[in-house]
């Protein structure tokens, strides 16, 4: 199997539908992601299902990705999915945030669920407001397509049919919206917050 030492090259190959590159990504990061997920859900089988679902979403949305750390994005996706799982179990009843300071590399991500805590509730409110600013600042057609894709969970083909445009046009509008989010948050916030928002915008459903 080809070794990919450059994440940009790896992402480029995946975006070009290179399944071998995607297989390399899966085998390279699965063990670390599994250990990371188990810290949240404390169940190996659940962790495995979450990781597989994250990789599936990554492959399905591969064409939307650009200029982002693949490693950080994967960890953010897994973290978000783990928190969603815990919420469904009613395990998390209030805001929790603790820095995983004993880990190395991309495992040093925030364990965050913004809800009731006043201090971090302010950050949550701020991010929500910034997201609204970006959405409202998008060109009309771009905003319309993004909302249909992100908030109404419509497939590109469904959006194209409703708006009577091509799927290529839909993809371009979504890419334009993601570019606006990327620029806005990358310039204003630390990398961990930027990656968290990007993972939410692209993958959260």
TrEMBL record:
Family the entry assigns: Belongs to the sigma-70 factor family. ECF subfamily.
InterPro entries in UniProt: RNA_pol_sigma-70-like, RNA_pol_sigma-70_dom, RNA_pol_sigma70_bacteroid, RNA_pol_sigma70_r2, RNA_pol_sigma70_r4_t2, RNA_pol_sigma_r2, RNA_pol_sigma_r3/r4-like, WH-like_DNA-bd_sf
Ranges in coiled-coil conformation: none
Keyword Transcription: yes
UniProt entry keywords in alphabetical sequence: Sigma factor, Transcription, Transcription regulation
Keyword Cytoplasm: no
Gene Ontology biological process terms in this record: DNA-templated transcription initiation
GO MF term set: DNA binding; sigma factor activity
Residue ranges of domain RNA polymerase sigma factor 70 region 4 type in the record: 134-178
Protein's name according to its UniProt entry: RNA polymerase sigma-70 factor
Signal peptide extent: none
Organism superkingdom: Bacteria
Stretches assigned to the RNA polymerase sigma-70 region domain: 25-87
